[in-house]
């Protein structure tokens, strides 16, 4: 059998396992040219941020940076209204933690430390989860609640992309 046939057979077997790690490994084996957002739950949002980037490390970094930018804006908005209650105080305090974890995640990408990257993105997702829950789980109709839901979705996308990061 040729090397290409061996590679194709290995990839098919990995895809048939349907495990997240198997899919991620298969995509690493296949190399570039794949849509990294195919592993995310919020594909449209992911693609709007990644903008066609095929390199998974770069796509993950772009996604983290965009999430940080939007988190800073949300934190500024929460600061103004946090005394009114309704979960804004919780969000305001969690945004600092999320930003710290996202900053660490950017360093993890540069250091090719996928394990720490996953930990820091998981921690930031928890921060956004807590804020989202405090705002009514994204079910509230106000603009801030919708914003927290979007931040949560973006963090989820970052974590999904991180499973593809080359180590």
UniProtKB/TrEMBL annotation:
The keyword Zinc-finger does not apply. One of its GO terms (molecular function) is enzyme inhibitor activity. The keyword Flavoprotein does not apply. SMART domains: PMEI. Residues 1-26 form the signal peptide. Pfam families: PMEI (PF04043). Residues 28-161 form the Pectinesterase inhibitor domain. CDD domains: PMEI-like_2 (cd15800). Keywords: Signal. This is Pectinesterase inhibitor domain. It comes from Arabidopsis suecica (Swedish thale-cress).
